[in-house]
Design brief:
Layout (H helix, E strand, L loop, with lengths): L6 H6 L15 H4 L6 E3 L2 E3 L12 H4 L2 E3 L2 E3 L10 E7 L15 E6 L9 E6 L5 E10 L5 E13 L8 E14 L2 E15 L2 E5 L20 E18 L2 E25 L4 E9 L3 E17 L2 E18 L3 E9 L19 E18 L3 E17 L5 E6 L2 E12 L2 E12 L18 E15 L2 E17 L6 E19 L4 E15 L1 H5 L12 E10 L6 E10 L2 E2 L12 E2 L2 E11 L8 E7 L7 E3 L5 E3 L4 E9 L1
Parallel strand pairs: 3-6, 12-14
Antiparallel strand pairs: 1-2, 1-5, 3-4, 5-6, 7-8, 7-36, 8-9, 9-10, 10-11, 11-13, 13-14, 14-15, 14-16, 15-18, 16-17, 17-19, 19-20, 20-21, 20-22, 22-23, 23-24, 24-25, 25-26, 26-27, 27-28, 28-29, 29-32, 30-31, 32-33, 33-36, 34-35
Length: 647
């Protein structure tokens, strides 16, 4: 049986339950360059991801690139058009024009190679949920055209809190065309979903930690969230001759929830009693148009290679929110099923708050490499930023800033395989939005100025095995929950000083490792901390985090590899306000162990890849906290199994 003969089977299985979640062939451990955050398909490895880099949230900061080009993301992204996602910090930002101080989340679009197979994946995800995704890939014989198109379906979407009966579909893809000297690539996706609302909770006594039963549905049957996410973009690149080139990027991104519900259980006590609230939200919408234009010159002088780029950037973000109905359900007993209450009437509810963000920038970047011994990166960006908030009564208030931002960094090879580097940068980043439990829920905070300095080293221990280390200090305004007003706002300045390390690559021909850790000394300063209203430690930021992942190819069984991963998260405060003893209440340290395998089968010439995992193998129970000081429990032991076939 040939691979081509499996195409009818793939098309027939389009009606099967599924989701665009993963491919069994995607292996982040063998693909990652370091332990600082890497995603391929839907599997990730590293101490960082978009939600946590050196203790900061890059999703909130908005530091995104697609193929190295600036854009603003209001919606999600998909592996149907993304080949991989890399968190770039330190040394790895030296090849990025005008990187943000906190780092960059860099998305790499798919561009299928000649003969690269299409993929059909079917499986059961973590909550015994059947799913499927189909990813078609192709490239023309002359290489001028390439593309990928994927479809994923879920008919019974479940979650860790016992929510079920959800559904979703996702359609996404990308296409590239080389038209004479011009290369154009488009990408886009539409995600439509309906799912049970999830809950978060607070504790009555921070020293009494009642244990909620995982997987028990505690919500209201009518509290369901539904909506859409969509994204579309265009990238253009053209050589102009004489070392000159031009490029442009434009991206539309939108989060469009038709209905949203947030379940809150406040002051959970030792008997699992709590006050129950549901925040019901009418249709909200966050839309961003963004892009940049580039004019670059690249040339050489002796052993030095130079690249100078002039960049113009812009964004227009519009956010409709508000009009929420808070439903007080009274006292609830979380030791059993939820007592159901009537659904609120949202037929006349409309969003009544509006904010607008306009940002325009003009800058220049210079990059140089000399004889593979010296690398420099310097840039300056003048930004005009204006944010306008329009209240329910129509009164508008605006804030405008026009900072000059810059970055400078360099690396020098001081010995064979050993590079030292340093950088300093100042940037303007988003501060995120208020969470649903805050009085100003969904309000987008004003942009903030960020400063970072760091030094580090990279050492190639052997061919394919690399050690990275860095010391850094990042400073920015600190956003948190005001305990007196329940408003999410800036409460002072936070400084994260720390060290990080990464070891990645092949220890032997069969064994690949990704090991990393970060130690932080985070500290808040300002009037709130000086008065004792809040403590010195930011909520949810541990001092220590570490990961260790390995992949072992079994020589005795060709096509079989075994993998394991350990994730450790140190203790962290879950309330900003100190307790009676003057110390902030803290969540204990947690660790999680995962095991898995991949096996390339051979069934009468058909060679699918099997992927199986057990996550949180020892069933550890822990709590997580967000910036609004609300809690959730960690996911239980769970299993995944999927089968990917190429055609």
């Amino acid at each position: 049986m040939t691979a081509r003969s499996h195409l009818p089977l793939a098309l027939a299985l389009l009606a099967a339950p599924g989701a665009a979640f993963a491919q069994a062939t995607a292996n982040p451990v063998t693909s990652a360059d370091d332990a600082f955050g890497f995603t391929i398909g839907e599997e990730s490895v590293g101490i960082y991801d978009a939600s946590s880099v050196r203790g900061f949230d890059l999703e909130a900061a908005g530091n995104y690139r697609v193929n190295g080009s600036y854009f603003v993301k209001s919606s999600g992204v998909s592996s149907f058009f993304l080949d991989r996602t890399t968190v770039r910090i330190g040394l790895n930002t030296l090849n990025v024009d005008l990187p943000g101080p906190s780092g960059v989340v860099d998305f790499k679009l798919r561009d299928p190679a000649a003969g690269e197979p299409s993929l059909l994946t079917i499986g059961l995800d973590e909550y015994e949920q059947p799913y499927m995704d189909l990813l078609l890939k192709g490239r023309s014989a002359d290489g001028r055209l390439s593309g990928a198109l994927g479809l994923g379906l879920v008919f019974d979407k479940k979650d860790a809190q016992g929510g079920e009966d959800g559904r979703s579909w996702l359609l996404g893809g990308t296409a590239r065309a080389t038209l004479g000297p011009v290369t154009a690539q488009v990408f886009g996706g539409e995600f439509d979903y309906e799912r049970a609302a999830t809950f978060r909770f607070t504790l009555d006594d921070p020293d009494v930690r009642p244990r909620l039963k995982r997987g028990r549905f505690l919500g209201q049957d009518w509290a369901r969230s539904r909506g859409q996410r969509r994204i579309a973009g265009l990238l253009l690149d053209a050589p102009l001759g004489g070392g000159w080139s031009a490029g442009a990027t434009g991206v539309f991104s939108q989060e469009d929830p038709t209905r949203a519900h947030s379940q809150l259980f406040l002051d959970v006590d030792g008997t699992l009693g709590a006050r129950s609230l549901v925040v019901a939200s009418p249709q909200q919408r966050a839309t961003a148009w963004s892009g940049e234009g580039r004019l670059s010159w690249a040339g050489e002088t002796g052993a030095a290679s130079h690249r100078v780029t002039v960049v113009a950037r812009g964004r227009r973000s519009r956010h409709l929110f508000g009009g929420d109905r808070v439903v007080d359900l009274g006292l609830a007993d979380l030791s059993g099923p939820a007592r159901q209450a009537p659904a609120p009437d949202l037929s006349t509810a409309r969003p009544n708050l509006h904010d607008e963000t306009d940002q325009w920038g003009l800058g220049a970047s210079y990059r140089m490499t000399w004889a593979n011994r010296l690398t420099l990166n310097a840039g300056v960006l003048r930004t005009d930023y204006e944010k306008t908030f329009i209240a329910a009564d129509g009164v508008a208030r605006s804030r405008a800033v026009t900072p000059v931002l810059f970055n400078v960094g360099g690396a020098v090879r001081v010995a064979r395989g050993l590079d030292l580097y340093a950088s300093y940068s100042r940037g303007l980043e988003e501060a995120g939005a208020a969470p649903s439990s805050a009085a100003n829920r969904n309000e987008v905070l004003n942009a903030i100025r960020v400063t970072q300095r760091e030094i580090g080293a990279r050492y190639a221990l052997s061919e394919g095995l690399v050690l990275l280390g860095a010391a850094f200090e990042t400073e920015k305004p600190y956003a948190g929950l005001d305990g007196a007003t329940n408003i999410y706002r800036t409460l002072g300045t936070v400084r994260h000083r720390g060290v990080e390390a990464s070891l990645s690559g092949r220890l032997t021909q069969a064994l690949t490792v990704v090991v990393g850790g970060v130690w932080l000394d985070p500290e808040i300063s300002g009037d709130e901390a000086d008065s004792g209203a809040i403590g010195r430690r930011p909520v949810g930021v541990p001092r220590l985090r570490g990961v260790a992942s390995l992949n072992y190819a079994v020589a005795a069984a060709p096509g079989l590899s075994l993998d394991a991963g350990l994730d450790y998260v140190g203790a962290s405060p879950f309330r900003a306000a100190p307790g009676p003893d003057g110390r902030q209440p803290r969540l204990p340290a947690e660790w999680e162990v995962n095991f898995g395998l991949r096996y390339r089968l051979d069934v009468a010439g058909w060679r699918p890849t099997l992927r199986a995992q057990v996550l949180n193998a020892f069933g550890g129970y822990g709590l997580t906290v967000n910036g609004a000081e609300t809690l959730d429990y960690t996911a239980p032991r769970r299993f995944r199994v999927l089968l990917t076939t190429e055609f």
